[in-house]
Give the backbone structure.
Amino acid sequence: MNTTMLKVFVTVAEEGGFSRAAERLGLTQPAVSISVRSLEEELGVPLFDRSPGRCRLTSHGARLLEPAREI
């Protein structure tokens, strides 16, 4: 896990979506998705509940959010 992955995760959580996070970060939406997916794979848990038009934190994501902000 690196700080870039955490920054992307926090931005997706704050923006409520991958596209808005990508715009804020100056990245492409696929790059944001890959970063979050890599973090999820590394941690072994889903961080977001993805459904069409919505992106919400899972309980695991909610627990990670504040520590990730601090880092």
